Amino acid sequence: MKRAESGIPSESKAASFVMILILVVALLWFYSPAQVKGGCSRAASGQSRLSNPAGYTELAASPTVGQGHTGQADAGSGVLCGNLYVVGGYGSSSDDSLDAVSVYSPAENTWHSGPQYPVKAWGMACSATIISLFCFGGVGAGVRAYRLDASAFTWTRLKDMPMGYNNSQGHVAVADVNDSRVFIMGSSSNLGVNRTTLVYDTVLDSYAKKSDMPYGSGWFTAAMYQGRIYTIGGTLSNQVLMYITANDTWKQLPASLPGPPRFGMIRNPGVFSGLIPINDGKKGGMTFYKTTYFYDIASNRFIKGPDSLLARDGISGGVIGDSLYLVGGRSDLNAPRGLTFAEALNLTYAVSKLSS
């Protein structure tokens, strides 16, 4: 008599093995700290260890990109899922536009390549909500705009900006993380829109024009705090402007960034403990700065912070957790090249010293 077979059929064993293998690979991918998953990293919630708590700490250099193997100057940037995204910019000169996206993970002090930008462009305005990074215009991009979702591996094209922004540079975008709006302000190249306030609706994929700024400017620092946007410095002024989003009203405040008008600072750094950081930049001519100021929103005054490690403008960066990150830019007008230099400041310590 033939003995009856026992156990699991070979086909079922094979299928079970394949399923287990797929599960193991998925878990390894999900928990890999070096893997950028559509713009998000599991390690994004941590902070890099800064060796100099009293000042700036040099970080891992950003990747060399493009044909010139340089860093990125005049790039767009934004903080998405706790990582810093540096988008496009130029490399060996302003004629060497880039489509590279470099992603910095503070927890590991490492860089990764993000999803390639759809066009080679620089000077675009970028800002992030909790789940998406938005970029608008730029030299080389015309009036095109794009969105990168945290769960996606490619950029999505949005409705084009108004034609007045064609190849605009130095405009500034600030996203309302509690709403579905991104505010776009100013321009350093397109005079027809250099005073314009434009609002992009992330749900309706549409633009609406709001009240003009009191004066035209570009390459300034801007940040939103409690429903108000503060703009500081720029190509034409060192004044502070406040925009009240609830009633579409601009107001010039009685405070001025110390020194002559400067531009090319981080355009959308964010806010830490009621303070807006203003970093580096340059004035007309050959003078680059490496100074840090904090605009104290409550007292409407500027407080001097520690100098950064390198004088430059056209930088990218932003506040992540309790640290301020600066990367890229340029430091020479005669032979401008995108820099790979990156640094960070411990804001908790800096703020404690400012108030002491």
Task: Chart the SSEs and their pairings.
Layout: H1 10-31, E1 56-58, E2 76-80, E3 83-87, E4 101-105, E5 110-113, E6 125-128, E7 132-136, E8 145-149, E9 156-157, E10 172-175, E11 181-185, E12 197-201, E13 206-210, E14 221-225, E15 228-232, E16 239-244, E17 249-256, E18 275-279, E19 292-296, E20 301-304, E21 316-320, E22 323-327, E23 342-346, H2 347-354
Antiparallel strand pairs: 1-23, 2-3, 3-4, 4-5, 6-7, 7-8, 8-9, 10-11, 11-12, 12-13, 14-15, 15-16, 16-17, 18-19, 19-20, 21-22, 22-23
Task: Kindly describe this structure.
The chain is mainly beta and 356 residues long. The protein has a single domain (66-354), classed as Kelch-type beta propeller (Neuraminidase). The chain has two helices and 23 strands. The strands form six sheets. Strands 1-23-22-21 form a four-stranded antiparallel sheet. A four-stranded antiparallel sheet has the order 2-3-4-5, with no helix packed on it. A hairpin with a 4-residue loop joins β12 (197-201) and β13 (206-210). It is globular and about 45 Å long. The protein starts with 9 loop residues before the first helix and ends with a helix. The model is unreliable at 1-6, 21-39 and 41-46 (pLDDT under 50).
Identify the notable features of this structure and list them briefly.
356 residues; mainly beta; Neuraminidase; four-stranded antiparallel β-sheet; globular
- What's the N-to-C terminus distance? 93 Å
**What's the pLDDT, averaged over the residues?**
87
Number of structural units classed as domains: 1
SS strand fraction: 25-35%
What is CATH's topology name? Neuraminidase
CATH class placement: Mainly Beta
